[in-house]
Amino acid sequence: QVQLVESGGGLVQSGASLTLSCAASGRAFNNYAMGWFRQAPGKEREFVASITWSGGRTTYTERTKGRFTVSRDKAKFMVYLQMNSLKPEDTAVYYCAARLLETTTYSYWGQGTQVTVSS
Questions:
Q1: 33 contacts 53 by C-beta, under 8 angstroms
Q2: Terminal-to-terminal C-alpha distance of the chain
Q3: Intervals of the chain under pLDDT 50
Q4: What would the pLDDT profile of 67-101 be if each residue is shown by its tens digit?
Q5: Is the dihedral of CA 107, 103, 26, 59 positive or negative?
Q6: How many CA atoms lie within 13 A of 38 on its CB side?
Q7: SS (H, E, C) the chain
Q8: Alpha-carbon gap, residue 102 to 111, rounded angstroms
Q9: What is the percent of the chain with per-residue pLDDT over 70, rounded to a whole number?
């Protein structure tokens, strides 16, 4: 069964950097896109970034484009989210997710990791 486990969250100051990791297991992900989402208190979950497992094609939301970088290490079955110039509004629980390329629905989700950015 597919398992996604996030790590790397924490409390940082505004302007700092943080890298989140997602360990993926349970199947081959060649036909999948791996996404990062976040949910702040009282707000809906929002898309942050995604990367196709095989080709490495990336997509970003405009709010994080230029500050966040998504990458994957196929050999290690890891997906990363490098976050730079963090702002208090980036505070949220960050989730790793996976979807088949031919769908728009993410079927697999991790448990989330908390990122808190203090001003």
A1: yes
A2: 40
A3: none
A4: 999 999 999 999 999 999 999 999 999 999 999 99
A5: negative
A6: 22
A7: CCEEEEECCEEEECCCCEEEEEEEECCCCCCEEEEEEEECCCCCCEEEEEEECCCCCEEECCCCECCEEEEEECCCCEEEEEECCCCHHHCEEEEEEEEECCCCCCCEECCCEEEEEEC
A8: 24
A9: 100
